[in-house]
Protein backbone atom coordinates (compact mmCIF):
# COMPACT_ATOMS: atom_id res chain seq x y z
CA UNK A 1 0.00 0.00 0.00
CA UNK A 2 1.43 3.37 -1.05
CA UNK A 3 1.15 6.13 1.55
CA UNK A 4 1.50 9.86 1.12
CA UNK A 5 4.48 11.16 3.02
CA UNK A 6 3.61 12.12 6.57
CA UNK A 7 -0.13 11.58 6.12
CA UNK A 8 -0.59 8.43 8.20
CA UNK A 9 1.59 9.78 10.98
CA UNK A 10 -0.72 12.78 11.34
CA UNK A 11 -4.15 11.30 10.69
CA UNK A 12 -3.67 7.77 12.07
CA UNK A 13 -3.72 4.51 10.22
CA UNK A 14 -6.48 3.80 7.76
CA UNK A 15 -9.56 1.72 8.71
CA UNK A 16 -8.06 -1.21 6.78
CA UNK A 17 -5.06 -1.28 9.12
CA UNK A 18 -6.37 -0.16 12.50
CA UNK A 19 -6.33 -2.94 15.11
CA UNK A 20 -8.84 -1.16 17.36
CA UNK A 21 -12.60 -1.87 17.34
CA UNK A 22 -14.81 0.88 15.93
CA UNK A 23 -16.42 1.89 19.19
CA UNK A 24 -13.08 2.30 20.97
CA UNK A 25 -11.64 4.87 18.56
CA UNK A 26 -12.30 8.57 18.78
CA UNK A 27 -13.17 10.66 15.76
CA UNK A 28 -11.84 13.91 14.36
CA UNK A 29 -14.80 14.30 11.98
CA UNK A 30 -18.27 15.76 12.52
CA UNK A 31 -20.44 13.56 14.72
CA UNK A 32 -22.90 11.81 12.36
CA UNK A 33 -25.48 11.57 15.16
CA UNK A 34 -26.17 15.30 14.77
CA UNK A 35 -27.94 14.54 11.49
CA UNK A 36 -30.22 11.84 12.96
CA UNK A 37 -33.42 11.76 14.95
CA UNK A 38 -33.03 10.68 18.57
CA UNK A 39 -34.47 7.28 17.66
CA UNK A 40 -32.03 6.71 14.82
CA UNK A 41 -29.13 7.99 16.93
CA UNK A 42 -30.05 5.26 19.44
CA UNK A 43 -29.99 2.72 16.62
CA UNK A 44 -26.52 3.88 15.60
CA UNK A 45 -25.34 3.69 19.21
CA UNK A 46 -26.61 0.13 19.38
CA UNK A 47 -24.74 -0.77 16.20
CA UNK A 48 -21.58 0.82 17.61
CA UNK A 49 -21.86 -1.23 20.81
CA UNK A 50 -22.43 -4.40 18.83
CA UNK A 51 -19.35 -3.74 16.70
CA UNK A 52 -17.31 -3.25 19.85
CA UNK A 53 -18.63 -6.45 21.47
CA UNK A 54 -17.85 -8.43 18.32
CA UNK A 55 -14.35 -6.95 18.14
CA UNK A 56 -15.04 -5.47 14.70
CA UNK A 57 -12.96 -2.53 13.52
CA UNK A 58 -15.85 -0.82 11.76
CA UNK A 59 -19.61 -0.48 11.98
CA UNK A 60 -21.00 -2.10 8.85
CA UNK A 61 -24.46 -2.38 7.30
CA UNK A 62 -25.17 -5.71 9.00
CA UNK A 63 -24.61 -4.06 12.40
CA UNK A 64 -27.00 -1.29 11.35
CA UNK A 65 -29.62 -3.76 10.11
CA UNK A 66 -29.42 -5.71 13.38
CA UNK A 67 -29.92 -2.57 15.45
CA UNK A 68 -32.76 -1.31 13.24
CA UNK A 69 -34.64 -4.59 13.60
CA UNK A 70 -34.17 -4.55 17.36
CA UNK A 71 -35.01 -0.90 17.99
CA UNK A 72 -37.03 0.66 15.17
CA UNK A 73 -40.74 -0.27 14.98
CA UNK A 74 -41.17 1.39 11.55
CA UNK A 75 -38.52 -0.88 10.05
CA UNK A 76 -39.83 -3.99 11.81
CA UNK A 77 -43.31 -3.23 10.45
CA UNK A 78 -42.00 -3.77 6.92
CA UNK A 79 -41.57 -7.48 7.60
CA UNK A 80 -43.82 -10.35 8.49
CA UNK A 81 -43.31 -11.68 12.02
CA UNK A 82 -41.47 -14.88 11.04
CA UNK A 83 -39.08 -12.88 8.88
CA UNK A 84 -38.02 -10.68 11.79
CA UNK A 85 -37.38 -13.71 13.99
CA UNK A 86 -35.44 -15.44 11.20
CA UNK A 87 -33.34 -12.36 10.50
CA UNK A 88 -32.52 -11.74 14.16
CA UNK A 89 -31.70 -15.41 14.65
CA UNK A 90 -29.31 -15.23 11.73
CA UNK A 91 -27.73 -11.93 12.77
CA UNK A 92 -26.90 -13.12 16.29
CA UNK A 93 -24.78 -15.91 14.79
CA UNK A 94 -22.40 -13.42 13.21
CA UNK A 95 -19.62 -13.75 15.79
CA UNK A 96 -19.60 -17.56 15.66
CA UNK A 97 -20.67 -18.31 12.11
CA UNK A 98 -20.90 -16.59 8.76
CA UNK A 99 -19.44 -13.32 10.07
CA UNK A 100 -16.06 -14.91 10.72
CA UNK A 101 -15.16 -14.51 7.04
CA UNK A 102 -15.78 -10.77 7.36
CA UNK A 103 -13.22 -10.32 10.09
CA UNK A 104 -10.18 -8.38 8.92
CA UNK A 105 -11.97 -7.20 5.76
CA UNK A 106 -13.60 -3.89 4.82
CA UNK A 107 -17.18 -3.65 3.60
CA UNK A 108 -16.89 -1.54 0.48
CA UNK A 109 -18.81 -2.52 -2.63
CA UNK A 110 -17.97 0.76 -4.37
CA UNK A 111 -21.60 0.99 -5.46
CA UNK A 112 -22.16 4.41 -3.87
CA UNK A 113 -19.54 7.16 -3.39
CA UNK A 114 -18.81 8.12 0.21
CA UNK A 115 -19.56 11.81 0.80
CA UNK A 116 -18.89 11.78 4.53
CA UNK A 117 -16.55 9.15 5.95
CA UNK A 118 -16.86 9.05 9.75
CA UNK A 119 -14.06 7.13 11.37
CA UNK A 120 -14.95 3.64 12.50
CA UNK A 121 -17.56 3.11 9.74
CA UNK A 122 -17.25 0.88 6.71
CA UNK A 123 -17.48 2.76 3.40
CA UNK A 124 -20.78 1.03 2.65
CA UNK A 125 -22.28 1.99 6.02
CA UNK A 126 -21.01 5.56 5.73
CA UNK A 127 -22.54 5.82 2.24
CA UNK A 128 -25.87 4.54 3.57
CA UNK A 129 -25.80 7.10 6.37
CA UNK A 130 -25.13 9.94 3.92
CA UNK A 131 -27.90 8.71 1.63
CA UNK A 132 -30.34 8.48 4.53
CA UNK A 133 -29.62 12.07 5.53
CA UNK A 134 -30.04 13.13 1.91
CA UNK A 135 -33.47 11.49 1.79
CA UNK A 136 -34.51 13.39 4.91
CA UNK A 137 -33.32 16.71 3.48
CA UNK A 138 -35.22 16.15 0.24
CA UNK A 139 -38.30 15.55 2.37
CA UNK A 140 -37.68 18.89 4.09
CA UNK A 141 -36.50 17.42 7.40
CA UNK A 142 -33.09 18.12 8.99
CA UNK A 143 -32.67 14.66 10.52
CA UNK A 144 -32.90 11.15 9.09
CA UNK A 145 -35.19 8.44 10.44
CA UNK A 146 -34.75 4.70 10.66
CA UNK A 147 -36.69 4.03 7.46
CA UNK A 148 -34.41 6.45 5.61
CA UNK A 149 -31.39 4.44 6.71
CA UNK A 150 -32.97 1.09 5.93
CA UNK A 151 -33.93 2.24 2.44
CA UNK A 152 -30.40 3.53 1.84
CA UNK A 153 -28.88 0.25 3.04
CA UNK A 154 -30.89 -1.93 0.65
CA UNK A 155 -30.02 0.32 -2.29
CA UNK A 156 -26.53 -1.24 -2.25
CA UNK A 157 -26.98 -4.81 -3.51
CA UNK A 158 -23.43 -5.74 -2.46
CA UNK A 159 -23.79 -4.68 1.18
CA UNK A 160 -23.52 -7.17 4.00
CA UNK A 161 -27.03 -6.28 5.15
CA UNK A 162 -28.48 -7.21 1.76
CA UNK A 163 -26.55 -10.49 1.89
CA UNK A 164 -28.12 -11.25 5.28
CA UNK A 165 -31.59 -10.34 4.00
CA UNK A 166 -31.15 -12.64 1.02
CA UNK A 167 -30.04 -15.54 3.21
CA UNK A 168 -33.19 -15.01 5.29
CA UNK A 169 -35.37 -15.16 2.19
CA UNK A 170 -36.17 -11.44 1.94
CA UNK A 171 -36.09 -9.79 -1.48
CA UNK A 172 -34.30 -6.59 -0.46
CA UNK A 173 -34.37 -5.12 -3.95
CA UNK A 174 -38.12 -5.49 -4.31
CA UNK A 175 -38.68 -4.04 -0.86
CA UNK A 176 -36.44 -1.06 -1.52
CA UNK A 177 -38.21 -0.33 -4.81
CA UNK A 178 -41.61 -0.54 -3.13
CA UNK A 179 -40.55 1.88 -0.39
CA UNK A 180 -39.07 4.27 -2.94
CA UNK A 181 -41.88 4.36 -5.50
CA UNK A 182 -44.90 2.58 -4.07
CA UNK A 183 -47.61 3.15 -1.49
CA UNK A 184 -45.26 2.77 1.46
CA UNK A 185 -43.17 5.74 0.33
CA UNK A 186 -46.27 7.96 0.06
CA UNK A 187 -47.55 6.81 3.44
CA UNK A 188 -44.11 7.42 4.94
CA UNK A 189 -43.92 10.97 3.58
CA UNK A 190 -47.48 11.74 4.74
CA UNK A 191 -46.82 10.27 8.16
CA UNK A 192 -43.65 12.30 8.60
CA UNK A 193 -45.39 15.50 7.52
CA UNK A 194 -48.17 14.90 10.02
CA UNK A 195 -45.86 13.92 12.84
CA UNK A 196 -47.26 10.41 13.00
CA UNK A 197 -45.90 6.96 12.32
CA UNK A 198 -46.57 5.87 8.74
CA UNK A 199 -48.25 2.58 8.06
CA UNK A 200 -46.34 0.01 6.07
CA UNK A 201 -47.38 -3.24 4.52
CA UNK A 202 -45.12 -6.16 5.45
CA UNK A 203 -42.94 -7.46 2.68
CA UNK A 204 -43.10 -11.10 1.71
CA UNK A 205 -39.93 -13.09 1.27
CA UNK A 206 -38.52 -14.32 -2.01
CA UNK A 207 -38.19 -17.81 -0.57
Description:
By secondary structure, the protein is an all-alpha fold. It is about 50% helix and about 0% strand. Helix 6 packs across helix 7 and helix 9 crosses helix 10. The termini are far apart.
The main β sheet shows up as: none
Choose one word for the global shape.
globular
Q: Structural class, from helix and strand content? A: mainly alpha
What percentage of amino acids are in beta strands? under 5%
**What distance separates the N and C termini?**
42 Å
- Whole-number mean pLDDT: 74
Count of helix runs: 10
Q: Radius of gyration over alpha carbons?
A: 17 Å
**Strand-and-helix sequence, N→C?**
HHHHHHHHHH
Helical amount among residues, as a percent range? 40-55%
Total strands: the figure is 0
* Poorly predicted tracts of residues: 1-30, 194-200
List the helices and strands and how they pair.
Layout: H1 7-11, H2 38-54, H3 61-71, H4 73-76, H5 81-91, H6 123-138, H7 146-154, H8 160-167, H9 172-181, H10 183-193
Helix pairs in contact: 2-3, 3-5, 3-8, 6-7, 7-9, 9-10
Short description:
With 207 residues, the chain is an all-alpha fold. Helices cover 49% and strands 0% of the residues.
What are the salient characteristics of this protein?
207 residues; globular; mainly alpha; disordered N terminus
Amino acid sequence: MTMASGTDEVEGVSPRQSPQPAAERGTHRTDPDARLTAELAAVVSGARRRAMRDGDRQIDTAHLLHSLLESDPEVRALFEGPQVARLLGYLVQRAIGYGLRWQGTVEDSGAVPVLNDPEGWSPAAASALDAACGRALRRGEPRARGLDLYTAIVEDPESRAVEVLGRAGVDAGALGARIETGATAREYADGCAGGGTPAAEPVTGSA
